[in-house]
Amino acid sequence: MDGHQGQSGRAQNISLPPGFDPRTVQLVASRYTDYVFPAQLTTTVVVVVVVVVVVVVVVVIVVVIIIIVIIIKETGVHLDKKTLV
């Protein structure tokens, strides 16, 4: 069946413009393809996020250790082998 069906349900013939070759038609990108990231960009984003998370965790650990050391110095607590056991 050539053409599309009209409201009557019968197929209609559609005439193509002169010089039009349907084999040369290229697909038009949909509006959703603009939001697709290339694989390399996605991998880069994941690596950057992981590095940032690791750096934040290390900074938090260092800050906690510094706070503990300050508290120990201010309270005058002396840690030795007997206290730790």
The secondary structure category is: mainly alpha
The best one-word shape is rod-shaped
What portion of residues is helical?
40-55%
How many alpha or pi helices?
A: 2
Strand order of the largest sheet: 1-2
From the N-terminal CA to the C-terminal CA, the straight-line distance is: 90 Å
Radius of gyration: 35 Å
Major pleated sheet: 2 strands, antiparallel
Q: Number of DSSP strands?
A: 2
Tell me the strand percentage band: under 5%
Task: Give the SSE order as H and E letters.
Answer: EEHH
Mean pLDDT: 76
Uncertain residue ranges: none
List its salient traits:
single chain, 85 residues, mainly alpha, two-stranded antiparallel ribbon, 5% strand
